[in-house]
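Sample intake sheet
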Amino acid sequence: MARRFTIREIGRQAGVSDATVDRVLHARPGVREGTAGQVQRAIGELEAQRTQLELSGRRFLIDVVVDAPSRFSQAVRSAVEAELPLLRPAVFRARFHLRERWDEGGCARALADIARRGSHGVLLKASDTPEIAAAVAALTDRGIPVVTLVTDLPATRRLGYIGMDNRAAGATAAYLMCAWLGARDGSIALAVSKGSFRGEEDREIGFRSTLRTLAPGRVVHELPGSDGMDAIAERHLAAALAEHDDLVGLYSIGGGNSGFIRALEGGARTGTVVIGHDLNQENALLLRRGALQAVLGHNLRSDMNAACRALMHFHRALPGEWVPGPSPIEVHTPYNMPVPAAR
């Protein structure tokens, strides 16, 4: 497979020297196991994007950096790779930096590495922290534009944001929750994956403010962050169910829905109304069997296309100015899921 690509192409994709690639390809000693794996992953990425490499046109090499559970990261990757061949008149190639849990400062270091070796742009889903803001500033100073995905970093010098209006998404969830619960008494649990994600914070604000208008007496219990991990989510909700026997609804802002459903089923609370986000494969299955009542989503492929076109405008590969707009909020039920069900 590696023979389809030059050592220089592989090295640029992997972010390592030509000499390191040569040692890996010829199984010579002196290369760390992690670096060798990085080279092999780069070859896999080039293979997945081989059609793009065979096209002619202005070429862009971009970096996709995502802090999220693998189910979402892989959905982003699939959406990017599906859209690359459609991005005329340019030819895009992507490097992926996807982690379920970055170690302390890991995401900021990855962004610093990108700034050091160069890129035509970064698509970024990350926490809103001072370290990430500083890394975005360093990229911008080097002329590398950053487009935030799904969750914004509004206080940074990012080029723009691609995704839903998250406050409107939270308000939509509150509207649906009130419609399903009607006059039924009881409280609602609200679950985030990580409090430092600005998008999740905005969804919570939209949900709480709308709930206060539509059902001012409804009590909301906030669960601890789960990082979107099913086992942690299950543990947190099980504890909440033991403490609050009147829970009748759950708004899952971040993820971990399989864990939440296990907790509800284990506690014989399957009548609970559950609203989640993102129509990935896992949520599609839960929606089909009625464990989730609704999933709020957005078209990832359209978002990735828009993000790449924003970079094309920045580099003057497309005429005019890029004017961002929010992605349409999609409300999925068991009766209107697209085929295939997961994006």
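Comment: The radius of gyration is 22 Å. The longest helix spans residues 198-214.
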